[in-house]
Amino acid sequence: MGKWRWGVILDAGSSGTRVHVYKWLNPAKAREDADTEHLHSLPKLETKPKYTKKIRPGVSTFGDNPGDVGPDHLQELFDHALDIVPASQVKDTPIFLMATAGVRLLEPSKQRALLNEICSYAQKNTDFSLPDCDLHIQVIPGDTEGLYGWIAANYLLGGFDNPEGHQHGKGHHTYGFLDMGGASAQIAFAPNSTEAEKHANDLKLLRMRTINGDAMEYKVFTTTWLGFGVNQARERYVEALLAESYIPNPHELLDPCLPTGLRTTLTGEVVEDESPNTTLVGTGLFDTCLKRAWPLLDKDAPCEDPPCLLHGQHVPAIDFEVNHFVGVSEYWHTTHEVFEMAHKDKTYDWTTYQKMVKDFCSEEWDDIKANVAAGKWGKKVDEKTAQEVCFKASWLISVLHDGIGIPRIGIEKSANGIGYNRTKEVAAHSKDKGFLDPFQAVNKIDDMEVSWTLGKMVLYAAGQIPPSASEALPVGFGPNLGLGPFQEAGSNYAPVPIGDDDESWTEVAEDMAEKAHSRSTPGFLFFMLTIIFLFYIFRKRDRRLRLYRGINATFRRSRRPGSPRKGGRGFFSSNKLFGRSSGNYERVLEDGTLGAQDFELAEADSSDDNEHSDSSEGSRIGRTSGLATPKMNVVNFDSGNYFDLSSSQVAAQSVGLGLGMHQGGMSAMDRSGLVVRTESRERLMLAGGRRSRAGSPTRMKSPLMTPLEEI
To answer: Where is ATP annotated to bind (predicted)?
Structure first.
């Protein structure tokens, strides 16, 4: 076994499925190398942009034909993960598929059949660790997704590992988490000690484990508001406009939440000419738009279990002196996408943001279109984005300040009457003592996206660490008072021996090649000498092949599109290095196995929206991904430059009942009729079919295959 442990998780949304691969140090190795500070920290997870891949459509589209979901959808994602995880460690690498939207809307019988087929296919066609279908393949409810997001945010911000550096007062050192997508919105936070005691039965108990095996526990409240995502809020808004018109025949409706002069259908399609159907005509009156958004919060709904925030839904009282929130997905997109370039040097506060949106929405639609075409707001802003931003901004402001109650910095006091000292907060930010604003938008921290999938894998990695006590409690989460099932992280913390990790040299070679290409000729020559030395060390043919693949893939990525490819001659020719004499097989190796798409995101991934979660499914179809966003894209509402960072797609959370809690209730799956298709690489390539998985553990299991004869 190598020094790294790996994990694979598939985020199965309604518009597509995205695979994430994470790695972290073997717990034994981590403990061996850790100093006193790191012994009391959570495992450090790593990932790279090329470790992620998204394909469309979502698995829910296979509800009527579950047998097709494996070969027609999942296999491509499995292949991608198998290209990354070292072959020797696949059997010890867990794989999870968690559906957040789409699948939840299927009939229960179709949902169960689809999940059973997914698990059966993964178990039969990969060697990834998948011992428990109920735990590894499931539909997670929105509150669980919110909890994972809360873990990811605090993990990246440092609230767990460095509590002293993130003291918010009253012994509080964690951050609240807000997520908004197209269908729903989530909130997750740890209430202050008074509220935690008062509402103990409403909290989830979260237990993790540090490198030295000690338990780390938190009591977290999390809930979801279905229908409060930007898309469904917009639908409810249009329905309210129609209800107020009292005109049954087709007509025009004035819409203050659309830019001036913009005409659309009720579903948002732009109308250029006269339409026989009812149309919306933008007036660009943002103040009026805000007033019309307020009733959608449903603040007047009966509250059966006070206190409540939105829609009569219970939420413990929020102490904004210690509960400081970060917002992802639409909280980030709506405050950045249109305004990040035109207002690059502006700092954020509620008054400034509202004025910018108001000025934008009052512009004529023809002028906005011209500015979009001219790239005034960057390549990521298209006409659809510009069309939607007025309503989205009004909805975000309403939810944040009128719904959740987050103070408007500089003009409002907190709920307990204590005002905010802006000068003091700015000074605190400059000393890096944590984020003390009541709310800030965030997208990437330390070059890693705040994704709920990260939170899930952090929990798993923490569960792999052996407990310091002989009868330690399990890692996972469940009801705070124990009145329900406790969902364990599913980790296996049996000690794993530390040995050579040959495959890690592939990553080393790639990193070295990338650095060498960015440097001068002397640096490149030094790189070449280093590679020659590595080839001397790895004299075994299979080891040289792995290193060759990493180098060759990196050089292919660096070659400009359309530039001629070398004919396989020279030092790095596989014929000379690996003893190959067959010209045909050489082509299979280069053209079939080592394409650049195997090592980085496909083109579609860079333009997908909802890349990290699925509660915003449908709200941002066809948008760019946020993988190029620079380090530490965190917005400080009172200090620093608010609009100096590039935007990124972080999808939001979705809600509903699911199969998130493991109770062992799922029946054994019927795997009859499933055919494992194994074909030789030569047959696949000659047929022009899909690429075979060179590193797959199932390779060479077909009775039709025979090993290549070495010459």
So the answer is: 182-186
